[in-house]
C-alpha cells in the first residue's frame, strides 16, 4: 500500500478549472487501479500554510540559539509547529501528485508557500561537505499543469517556470521519477474542449501505471 498526497493549487472547482478537471479524472482512475492505497487531498487554498514571516524566522532563530520550544511566543509556536507538521506529513508520503495552473509563467503563490514549507534541511534534503543531497530518492511525483498557451515546447518554452521550477525543487529533494501532464493552449475557445479531453485521456493512462 502506498501513501499518496494529492496536492491541488487552484481556488475554483473542477468544473471551472482545466487543471483540476484533469486532476480529478487522474486521481479517480488512480484510486480505481490502486484501491488499497491511501490518498490524502491537500487543497492548498484551504490549508494553513504559514508564510516565512518575522514570527517564523525569529522562532527558528530562537530554537537554533538553544531556547526551548516553550520559550517561543504563542504565535511563533503556532507557526513553527504547523510548518513542522506540513513537512512531516510530506516525507511520510510515497507519491506526490501536484495539480496547478500556470499563472504569470509560474505556479500559484500557495504552491510556492507549500514548497517553501517542505524544503527543510534534515527532512527533504541535507547539507554535506560536497553540497546538499536529497533525502527522498525513493519517492515519485507527477505534475498536472494547465496553461492558456503552449509552454512545454516551442518558442515559449524558455519562459516556462511552473513545471520546470517544481521539477527542480523535487530533484533537490532527491526525487528523480517525475512525470508531467500538460493541458496547454486552453485560451483557444475552439480548441479548449478537445485539449481538455486529450489531457484527461492521457491522465487516465498515466494513472494506471503511476
Automatic annotation (TrEMBL):
Annotated positions binding FMN: 17-19, 102-105
Residues making up the signal peptide according to the UniProt record: none
GO molecular function, one term: oxidoreductase activity
Keywords: Flavoprotein, FMN, NAD, Oxidoreductase
Residue ranges of every copy of the Flavodoxin-like fold domain listed in the record: 3-205
Domain of life, source organism: Bacteria
Pfam families attached to this UniProt entry: Flavodoxin_2 (PF02525)
Reaction catalyzed: N,N-dimethyl-1,4-phenylenediamine + anthranilate + 2 NAD(+) = 2-(4-dimethylaminophenyl)diazenylbenzoate + 2 NADH + 2 H(+); 2 a quinone + NADH + H(+) = 2 a 1,4-benzosemiquinone + NAD(+)
Cofactor note: Binds 1 FMN per subunit.
Cofactor: FMN
UniProt key word Flavoprotein: yes
Keyword Oxidoreductase listed: yes
Family: Belongs to the azoreductase type 1 family.
Oligomeric form and interacting partners: Homodimer.
Role of this protein: Also exhibits azoreductase activity. Catalyzes the reductive cleavage of the azo bond in aromatic azo compounds to the corresponding amines. Quinone reductase that provides resistance to thiol-specific stress caused by electrophilic quinones.
Protein name: FMN dependent NADH:quinone oxidoreductase
